[in-house]
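Dear H.,

Thanks for agreeing to be a second pair of eyes. The structure we're designing against is below in token form, covering all 293 positions.
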């Protein structure tokens, strides 16, 4: 074997938690196969339709009702304000069913949106424009990206900002997606302002999922599932739940520059929230000149 005198051993990226991608279609040439890969649309979060270990969110109705009863004891190290905020949403006894239904409604709307905006006036289909983030893939191997119809330069010159907006923005505008902006993967300032205005309008006018006061955003539903699991794992008389087991992102109010502890995100309006992982909080405070509440 020839001697190699350099060392380079990158970690690489595993493009799926199952480690598999299927070949799709005929290769373009000897070194260009086609694969199909899911895209996780950046900056948005729709209600869930399926979840690992649970399946349909409707299966979580009992767990979330039990969580409500556990939280009412106030025995756990959970913020009282958050408990007051979340209890009415859990005490309906159908929080999981609502999550599932809203997830299905969001999926139907998104399919209709894709069909409408990707169809040209002559009936042919447009290509998809994809812009990925600095972090290209999430932990499930999904491509993190903003997506939009692909337009020609001549078309773009005659279109407004809203007409050429991303599908990510359209979902926020419709009310079927909540913004979930996570530092440092933030859109440019003009897009950030546009998304905030769209979400504020959706919330205030009860569009899409916001039409039901008992709605849980996707990230809130997942948070509650994790909290229930963490509490049920406690043994004996233990009442201390590790915060990182169910909520681990700080929340920044983009209109005041104030940072809130993870359990206090509810103090910030949904359209003003920017989330920051604990590992990034020091950097974010310095870079964005933030203040603690």
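And this is the sequence the design step returned. I haven't edited it by hand at all.
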């Amino acid at each position: 074997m020839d001697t190699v005198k350099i060392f380079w051993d990158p970690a690489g990226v595993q493009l799926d938690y199952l480690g598999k991608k299927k070949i799709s279609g005929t290769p373009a040439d000897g070194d260009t196969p086609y694969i199909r890969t899911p895209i996780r649309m950046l900056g948005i979060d729709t209600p869930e339709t399926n979840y690992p270990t649970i399946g349909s969110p409707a299966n979580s109705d009992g767990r979330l009702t039990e969580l409500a009863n556990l939280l009412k004891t106030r025995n756990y190290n959970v913020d009282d304000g958050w408990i007051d905020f979340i209890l009415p949403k859990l005490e309906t006894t159908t929080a999981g069913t609502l999550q599932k239904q809203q997830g299905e409604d969001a999926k139907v709307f998104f399919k209709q949106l894709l069909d409408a905006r990707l169809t040209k006036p002559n009936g042919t289909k447009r290509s998809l424009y994809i812009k990925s983030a600095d972090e290209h893939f999430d932990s499930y191997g999904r491509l993190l990206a903003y997506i939009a119809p692909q337009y020609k330069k001549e078309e773009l010159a005659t279109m407004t900002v809203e007409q050429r907006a991303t599908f990510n923005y359209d979902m926020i505008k419709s009310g079927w997606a909540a913004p979930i902006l996570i530092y440092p993967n933030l859109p440019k300032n003009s897009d950030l302002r546009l998304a905030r205005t769209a979400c504020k309008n959706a919330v205030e006018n009860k569009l899409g999922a916001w039409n039901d006061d008992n709605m849980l955003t996707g990230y809130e539903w997942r948070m509650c599932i994790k909290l229930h699991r963490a509490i049920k794992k406690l043994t004996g008389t233990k009442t201390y739940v590790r915060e990182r087991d169910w909520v681990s992102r700080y929340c920044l109010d983009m209109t005041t520059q104030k940072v809130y502890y993870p359990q206090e995100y509810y103090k910030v309006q949904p359209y003003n929230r920017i989330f920051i992982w604990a590992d990034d909080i020091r950097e974010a405070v310095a870079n964005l000149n933030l203040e603690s509440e």
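Two observations from my side: The two ends are 63 Å apart (CA to CA). The chain has a mean pLDDT of 91.

Warmly,
E.
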